[in-house]
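Support reply, case 0932

Customer input (verbatim):
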Amino acid sequence: MPIGNTRPSVRPAPAGRAGGPAVTSSPRRDGALRRRAGGGSGAERLAPYILVAPAVLIIVLLRLYPLVLGVNFSFTGDGAQNGTAVGFGNYRELFADPLFRTALSNVGLLVLLLPVAVAIPGLLATFIYLRVPGHRLYRSVYFFPAVLSPVIVGAIFNLLLAFDGPLNAVLGAVGVGPIDWLGDPGIAMFMVVGVHIWATFGMALVVFLAGFATLDAALLDAARVDGASMPQVVWHVIVPSLSRTIQFVFVTTMIGMLTSMFGLLYVMTSGGPEGATYLPEFYIWKQQGQMNRPALASAASTVLFMIMLVVGLLQIKLLERSGKED
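Our regenerated output:
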């Protein structure tokens, strides 16, 4: 029992957590913190490069290396000159060939029709996103053609567009004379491109729907509150918000139109009539597979690659500029 006015002494609390033991730092922990602040160990810095190395190796071996070989092969001869350097002889022969010039003019037609090929899935995706009546059914129906083989699609439309086929029968019933859809050089290419758009726009539709998933719904609500009409909402809200998605669809659609129409061309027209539906892809197959001209086919492949590269870069630049202006 304490005597008199004796008071217990009060010690100051140790540094660290209140009411707990003092926190002391160890040299090992300080070193780990310094390494973490400085960017980690050497293994951690190399980890991203190690992870992407297999993909880079596959691209180099299966894409870039064959591309370099093909370009090099295009400067050699065919037949008796097999393996002999001929300079730009194959390219001069290419541009002197009327069929190849027709194929290049058809590429220009594809470029002109490209906005239509992108606008169709874009508008349909907009209707589905806005949940028009029956949008769930439309989502399935629109994608269905994308799972069909180009050979099957070509065979179906060969029957529909035949001179004595169902389409001309319907036109005859309303007093319109029969049209040779696939035999007229002036319209055959339009028919093939139209069938290709119908058969492939389902993939672009899926890409657009994925882009709509990132769209801020508050922007649409604000536009409606301000009294914007549907065309104004699409042009001033949806298009700028989906500019990256539109760029991707433009480039992939153009690549598909230049490199994925062989099946339709082979089944529907075989390049005819009078070579009117030739594309570089079909020309390459003819030279390689039937004419046994692999060096000339390599030159045509190189030209096709340069066309896709230039057109793709121009599309990206134009779309980026229009996005900045908006």
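We compared this against your earlier run and they match. Two observations from our side: The chain has a mean pLDDT of 84. The CA atoms of residues 43 and 69 lie 36 Å apart. Please reopen the case if you see a mismatch on your end.
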